[in-house]
Amino acid sequence: MPAAIRLQGLAKRFGRLEALRGVDLEVEQGEFFALLGPNGAGKTTLISILAGLTRASAGSASVMGYDVVRQYREARRNLGVVPQELVFDPFFTVRETLQFQSGYFGLRRNDGWIDALLHHLNLSDKADTNMRRLSGGMKRRVLVAQALVHKPPVIVLDEPTAGVDVELRQTLWQFIRELNHQGHTILLTTHYLEEAEELCERVAMLKAGRIVALDRTANLLRADAQRRVELRLNPPQLPEALRGRLVGERDGAFLLSLRDFDELEGLLAKVREAGGQIEGFCVREPDLEEVFLQTMRGGGQA
Ligand SMILES: Nc1ncnc2c1ncn2[C@@H]1O[C@H](COP(=O)(O)OP(=O)(O)OP(=O)(O)O)[C@@H](O)[C@H]1O
């Protein structure tokens, strides 16, 4: 069984800028996979290469075993991309947009599936509305429908929930989850890390064009992230004895590392000994955001 997505030594240069610097990655069929990274890390460039919109400077990429350059048509037929940017012809209706996209893939009688897509994405009552009359969130739903019109086994979503309301997010994830359960492979990029943590079994983190972490989500949480104590103090000064534990500050509160709960008493005692008063206190379980921030600070695998 070929990998859903396979990248080998993938590199991309824009003049002197190296957007991708030798990325190796395999996403298996049926995975729900997150590709994370800060702005400019190379996520969209990687997706553009997969979709055949940009040529790699070196290395290769394939979708379901089809090389994205040598076997462009087969690779493209196996891939559905929900792009970041909303670009449409404003004069078509929603249905026409989807029929047009079906035609691009040589699908003439696709109305049954188009109706199903409209239904799942809560767009049925907008089927005959012109694209220019839709709100941003509705346009985004059409983008999703457009990417799925040919029932591709591999679905790539590039920040699909940026600027999208809670209701649409939930509708969208419910539908994408269903598709994943049916066997579709999902590659997701997002800046909402709690979304990735909840949905994705495996995560790759990109930093300046390189993969700096790649593992199952659960392993990343176990290996890198620590429990944190969040302390709000009056006066807002951390006692000298706790300086070594400080890992950050968030909204005026100190974040201290906590290896296990037995340490808690000693830690609070040190605040009292220094004459400090505790105004707020909570223990935070490790989350993907913490792993991400740690990795981006330079702590990740090379
Ligand atoms: N057509 C282009 N010409 C020149 N530089 C480009 C081009 N496209 C992307 N870049 C540069 O390549 C780098 C990677 O960009 P890319 O859009 O892939 O990042 P990203 O991870 O998708 O970021 P974001 O989270 O902001 O979407 C950036 O430094 C960007 O400025």
Automatic annotation (TrEMBL):
Origin superkingdom: Bacteria
SMART domains the record matches: AAA
Gene3D superfamilies to which the protein is assigned, alphabetical: P-loop containing nucleotide triphosphate hydrolases (3.40.50.300)
The keyword Cell membrane is assigned to this record: yes
ABC transporter domain: residues covered: 5-233
GO molecular function terms noted in the UniProt entry: ATP binding; ATP hydrolysis activity
UniProt cross-references to InterPro entries, sorted A to Z: AAA+_ATPase, ABC_transporter-like_ATP-bd, ABC_transporter-like_CS, ABC_transporter_ATP-binding, P-loop_NTPase
Pfam families in the cross-refs: ABC_tran
Key words of the record: ATP-binding, Cell membrane, Membrane, Nucleotide-binding, Transport
Record PROSITE patterns: ABC_TRANSPORTER_1 (PS00211), ABC_TRANSPORTER_2 (PS50893)
The protein, known as: ABC-2 type transport system ATP-binding protein
Lineage of origin: Bacteria, Pseudomonadati, Pseudomonadota, Betaproteobacteria, Nitrosomonadales
